[in-house]
Every structure is written in C-alpha cells, then in structure tokens.
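Listing 4. Sequential folding, example run.
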Amino acid sequence: MEATTHTREPTLWHRDKYANEIGETDYNHELVIAGWVHETRNLGGIAFILIRDRTGLLQVTAIKKELGKELFKEFADLPKESVVAVRGMVQPNEKVSNGFEILAKEINVLGKAKTPLPLGVSDEDKAELDTKLDTRLDSRFLDLRKPNIAAIFKLRSSVLKAVRQQFDAEGFIEIHTPKVVATATEGGTALFPVQYFEQKAFLNQSPQLYKQIMMASGLDRVCEVGPAFRAEEHDTVRHLNEFTSIDMEMAFSDEEDAMGVLERIVQRSILELVENNTEELSDMINQLAEAIRVEAQKFDDQTDFLIRNFNVGIDSIKNTFDIKKLDQAIEKINGLSQNILSDIDLDKMREGLKLLAEKAKTN
C-alpha cells in the first residue's frame, strides 16, 4: 500500500515563517508573519511596529499611503500585546537589528489587548522587578510572554530532550507508571490522599516499585520522565510537593554502570544547552546578574542604615549608662571566664573531640 500525503491549501493568514527563520533568501518575497505587538512608534505617515513571536522580534513597517488611512490608524494605534497577522514584503534594512523589515500590505487584528495591562511584557527586566508575585501568577499567560521567563521553559525542554535521547542511545525503554495508587511505594513519606470513586487512593511519590517490577519482566533497562508527589511540609520556594522525576532502572549492572549512565546524561544535557540554547542561557545569566546587582544594592543600603543606627545607639548607650559600672561588670565577667577555663581538663577535651571525629568518619 502506497503512502499518501495530504497538503493543506494555503490560506491568507497562515504563518509562513517564524522571526528567526527569515533570511536573505526571503528578501523581496511576500510572506505572512504572526505574533504579539511588542512596541509601536507612530511618526504620522509611517509607523514601525515590533512583532514578537516565540523566536524573537521583527520589525513591520506600515505606510499610510499603502494601507489606507483607516487600516493604518488601526494598526498604528494597537495596544501592546495585541495579536496580529501581517502579510508583507521582506526588505533588507541594515538599520534593523536582524537586518530586514516587513513592508506591510495587509493586516489582520486577531485579538486586541485591553488596557491597561496588569503587568508589562516589553520591558521584561523592570517588569520582573516591579511586579508582585501574586499579580504575575494571576496573569501568568502574560508573565510567560517575557523572554527571560519563556527561556526557563525552553531550557527545560532542551534538557528533557537530551535526557530522552541519551536514554535511547543507552538502550533504555521508556515507560509510564501509575500515578494514582492504593498504597505507598516507599516508606516514611507522606502521601496526598485522593478520592478514587468509592475508594481512598494516593498520588504516587515514586515509580520505584514499578521500575523494580519491570526488571523482573526481562526488559532489562527502563526509564521514566514524569511527575511525582510528596506531601512534605516546606519553608522554601523549592520543594517536593510536585516535581518532575527522571528515573531509570538497570538489570545486570552495578553502581558504577548506573553512575556512568547518569554522568553521560548530564554531559549530553549540557552540550544540548550550549549548542542550541545560547540565547536563552544569555537571558538567564543576564537575569541572574541583574538580580545579584539589585540584592547587592539592597545590602549596601541596609548596611548603611544599620551603621548609622548603630552609631546612634552607641551614643545613646554612652549617655544612658554609667560607663564605670559597665567596665566593672565586664571585668567581673572576664574573671568568671578565666575561672571556668582553669577548671577544664584540656587533655580530656582533645580526647573527646578526637573520638567524635572518628565516629563522624565511621557514620
């Protein structure tokens, strides 16, 4: 039986290419791009609109004479984060960061954004620092449009891709184990209870039991990338309540074999990021550098505040207390300290510390 392929009829507003796919071979050709309005600059008879898709930014140039007065005004006055599709000619332009622009011929406004927006997207660094976490979570879809936030998901995707590729190269079979279970698969871990029809069940905290069962099946090497749940109290933003677990199980092997596989997975993941995610890594590094700078400034401000208040406090103490009595009290404390030290058998202390050190090594 011959394989058949079905081609879709081209439609006017079907995206032809992403921003990072457009190159010199597209110059003087017409295509359709789509995305979100990032920035606009209206100069009267001409307007420059930056359109953002998941791969980057591109400039659309709208000319009033070409589009007509009404369409030009609608496009030039669009609020940020409105969704548009643009059909136009790709023209080289050295003044634009990516070397080209789109001369708009037709525009389709797919969704007009409401104003004001609950949080900013175009100035991601300032928006990130000034916006409260609750606001970001309430409008999470907007928050995820920021390049530095989207970078987290792209990096994560690349890592998981590399993990699966290395597992495949090592001869592992990917499995998916149950996540709703009747009882714990590991001892000593609190479980999240769920109502499973008329029965009580739990969210699974580990695929360990099922991986070991698979070893008895003869598959030899299995792996899983999936969610795990642990009902453990936490005091930090990083916790184990719900996390993505990368698991593997190997038959006829020892710990050296297992560590070798894991080391190669880490190596491949790092290579994947370095080779294919340099832009996202740069965003993350810049974000980290900015956060460090802000925290350092806060620390400097707090240090100055403490020093100023400490000096004021010292002056206040000097004015309040009888310094002579304070000196007498300090001398008395020093005398007591000397008496305590003279009663300590230093040889016995050394023997005790040596014994503790040996026990620590053993344990």
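-- end of first protein; second protein begins --
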Amino acid sequence: MLVSRDTGETWEAFGHLRDSTTWLIENTLCEVAGDGDADAEDVVANPAAATVAAGGRPPPSLVMLFRTGAGCVYRSMSTDRGRSWTAAAPTTLPNPNSKVGMTSAPVWLTTSAATATAPTTRLILAYNPSDTRRAPLHLATSDDGGGTWTDVAVLEADPAGNFAYPTPIAMRRRRRAAIDSEGGEERERERARGAPVPAGGGVEVKIGYSVWGEGICVASVLIPDS
C-alpha cells in the first residue's frame, strides 16, 4: 500500500503481501470506521498513535480485497493506517479470477435497546458470484468489516454474460419522500434490482461495469439502512 502525507506529492510504500498459492491483484480498499479518529499523518509518523488514538480507542481499520486465481476473493486488514497488514486469507465470496469493486457508506443500525441507533460502516461490493464465469453480477453488503456478506441486488442476471471491472460509488443518502416523488423508468429499475426502501431511506449507489461486446453500463441501486 502507498501512503501520502502531502496530498499526493510524495508516496511511501508499506506492507508487502504475497500468497504462495495464488496471485493477489487488482485490489480494492475501504476504511471501516473505528471509535477513534487519529490523524493519518500522526499514525504514519508515529505507529503508537494507532493504538492510543482518541483516548486509547482504535482508529479506523482498512479492509482490502483481492482478485485471485484460487476461486474466491481474498481479504487483508490493517489497524494502523496501512503500515502493516494481516496475511491475505480466503473469504466465502467466489471469484472467477475477476476484479471486484468495493465502496463504503455510513449507516445507523438499531441496537439491542431497539430505540437507539449505532453508527457503523457498511461495505458495498460488486462482484461475480461464480468461481468460473464473470456472470452474473451482484451487489452485496457487509456490516462487520467484510467478515460476512449479504447479496442485496442483482445487477446482471444472465449466466452466459460477461460482466467485468465493476466500480461502485456511494453517492448520497436518500429519504423515502424524495425517492417516491421521482418515479419514472429509472426508479422502476432500482425497485427491480434492490430491496424495498424503508421509511428512513437509504444510500444511493452507482455502479459502472463493462459488458462484453456492448461497452460500459451504469446501474443505480438504493440500499436501505437495515
């Protein structure tokens, strides 16, 4: 991983991940919010800041996923702003030697008290749920740093297609009232792809990806908070 402390003027390399059984390529990376908010420059300059940030609470973690030739996505994590990484390990996500794309968005999940909400980071992944073909193309979410994933939308269902290099971007939070007032064909496509939107709304995600023989497509999905 390359880290810059001067808005991209210079870069410093940290970590060197290898696996003896497969390549780890075309990585995608997201930050998962922690309880602390240590300044990135402080952590790079002083590794101890990673564990004593914000009164002893941990700073955000970094989650990195890899395309592999092993039939599944691999994952590595860092808890010190990318200075060191866990060994890349296989996940339960299938992978047909194809790039995956990940983004993130803040969500507020209901706690055990049922009346309060807890902020967390929701990872959003576009991937091919197959270990042999770049089809179909799904959208999945994780609320535990990529430990477990739940499919939330089918972007492309054709099992004989070729859908590659997905790039999701979390655009903005949307309220149900604003969503319902829009209507139209695009909204109907969103309803077909994603789960019903609750009263509180959700996060709008745009996903660009290539379709073999056709070019670039863009899908829009609204992911509810819960």
